[in-house]
Amino acid sequence: MNMKHASLVLALSFAAGSAAAATTDFSSGAQGWTGMQPANGVGGSGIDTSLGNGAPAYRTVLENFGISFTNKTNTDFVRDYTATSAVTFGIDVLAQEITYFGQNVTRDLVLELRDYDNASNGLPYTSVWYTLGTLDASASGWQHFSVTIGNTAGSALPAGWGGYGAEDATGMPLLPADRTFASVLAGVDEIAFTTLKPGWAYGFTQFDVAIDNITVSAVPEPGETAMLMAGLGVLGAVARRRRSRRSN
């Protein structure tokens, strides 16, 4: 391989690696993801091979104030998110039942990124969180939810994001004065997809909800995307020249 081709391969590998996604589709087990277990022994959480959106799914069936799917151990999801300048989170969700006293209700699905190492104010952790959308059992089939953080180095909370770790005078959650959006992202110890929005109170609700295809992916820099496109163009030109030589 000559230097020109070697440089091209290196550039393509770098750009493709920057955009690579980590995915849990539960075909290889839970991979660190856990759901809530009931106190009364009725229902529970675990892998369900009959519900997957292309693979097995992770399902929670129980009555509680809310449900959460969390991960504290998988370093694809629990890490320093400021290591890349932008990142996208995605998840597929199937809501089969959400009822309150027998009536169908909806619940927001929240992505929460938690840092336990710098907790203060008597609260268990500091976090930043975002409402991905609404879970509605009347919706047909699987729903996909996602959010992109366009600047992981930002100090202020981006539009739509909330903070937890301190409270204002009315008891509503906010980031502690000594923490920033980026400082929380730099030390994520737990990732959660949850219906328990910080600062909100809920009544006992019956849930039957499954999740699948959880992804986190770096968003390539514009320069990296341009490099990838240019590299693909060069490869295409090389292939065309080779075909032309073979046909002559």
UniProtKB/TrEMBL annotation:
- For the keyword Signal, the answer is yes
Ice-binding protein C-terminal domain residues: 218-243
Which positions make up the signal peptide?
Answer: 1-21
* Keywords from the named record: Signal
Presence of the UniProt keyword Transcription regulation in the record = no
- Taxonomy, superkingdom: Bacteria
Locate the transmembrane regions by residue number: none
Instruction: Report the Pfam families cross-referenced here.
Output: PEP-CTERM
Protein known as: PEP-CTERM sorting domain-containing protein
